[in-house]
Amino acid sequence: MSAQTNVTIKKNDGTTDITFTAVAPSAGDKSPAVWRSQTVGSAAAHQPEMRLTARSNGPGTARRVEGVFVYPALVTGSDGKISISDKFILQFSGVVPLGMATVDVNEAASQGANFIAHAQLKDALKTGFAST
Description:
Blueprint: E1 7-10, E2 17-24, E3 33-36, E4 49-56, E5 62-76, E6 82-97, H1 102-116, H2 119-127
Antiparallel strand pairs: 1-2, 2-3, 3-4, 4-5, 5-6
């Protein structure tokens, strides 16, 4: 298991960096590690957030890793109050077999994560439609 650190990624323009600050490490199984983009909004609920949890499956033959990314859309009312008008939610889940060779797990994890970061998946998430 790796120690939680801040995560810097590219914004939609492909050149600008945005940092998700490590705000809470996982305390163990089913306890999420939490990152927030603290450069947006003044309240935690207004900030884009990533939560990552992991736990053992029932028989202990695999680990399930689940993530939830939430990006709120903010609006300012006529009274100046900022509120959330909608949320983009991206969820993912992976099962990591404990009996699989490390070289295979490493390759599967890298290829799967890189596919998620590919332009075709980004386009599907931007439009709400799968590739045709």
